[in-house]
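User: Good morning. I'm curious how NAP would be positioned relative to this chain. Could you predict the structure with it bound?
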Amino acid sequence: MDLGLAGKRAIITGASKGIGLAVARTLAAEGVYVIGGSRDTSDELKELVAAGQAVEVLVDLSSETGPGQLVAGALNEGPVEVLINNAGAVTPRTNGFVSVADEQWSYTLNLTLMAAVRTARAVLPHMLEGRRGVIINTASVNASLPDPLVVDYSAAKAALVNFSKALSKEVGPHGVRVNTVSPGPVATDLWLGHDGVASTLASTLGGDPGKYEETAVQDTATHRFTTPQEVADLIAFLASDRAANITGADYVIDGGLIQTL
Ligand SMILES: NC(=O)c1ccc[n+]([C@@H]2O[C@H](COP(=O)([O-])OP(=O)(O)OC[C@H]3O[C@@H](n4cnc5c(N)ncnc54)[C@H](OP(=O)(O)O)[C@@H]3O)[C@@H](O)[C@H]2O)c1
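Assistant: Good morning! Here's the predicted structure, ligand included:
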């Protein structure tokens, strides 16, 4: 299926690895020029840069100014038709809610919610002027499956979905679409890496990481992690004009983890 994305420019946050890298590669293969934002680069993202398909911008998106700087730099070089707010991180709160300090709540809210608010605020005047644009925010099943183990992350993702829906109503009549994608467990460093959720739970609660990986997907219908590429394919579709009348939607991609209709 030709997604008709060739020649467009997309900002992708968290493009250095995991889901963001898969999105960057997928969109680049469709002929999109990628502006990738993250704190560190990666060999994989460097490959896209070397091929002339991307530029990397090293930025802390949890800061007040980082998101705006990323967007301003991108707009200086040309138009931006697609914004994918994907950067994120999660820290299991194994000592319970009371142990989660204000600074930890602030960091999570800044990275999960405010980074998307700030990039959207920076890019929207440009998109509205052109009466054309797509914003896709990576949320999580935890937006609707609140979990005390990731209490701040769950609340922040719920806020991200709520914010995205509200924004879609305001900008929809002016040609800009806003959607969220809500994955269940995805096979990236966030879950499976050295400091990922499975390893953190194993080192603090006992057992081995494999046990927590199994538990994460035991209630799914497919009994496996989603791949980053599967999330990227969904995001690429939503970014394209094939999804031209899809806005204000939240697409769950979780192997059937959420049991309710
Ligand atoms: N993996 C899952 O199971 C899962 C499930 C549901 C939702 N999600 C969501 O999907 C998104 C991507 O997660 P992932 O699984 O691909 O994680 P990942 O492999 O750990 O990648 C996270 C990306 O975000 C960037 N990032 C993190 N903190 C940042 C900061 N302060 N400033 C700038 N960039 C930052 C990272 O780069 P640097 O570290 O170099 O900054 C990296 O590029 C996140 O929003 C996550 O919440 C993931």
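The chain has nine helices and seven strands. The radius of gyration is 18 Å.
Let me know if you'd like a different ligand tried.
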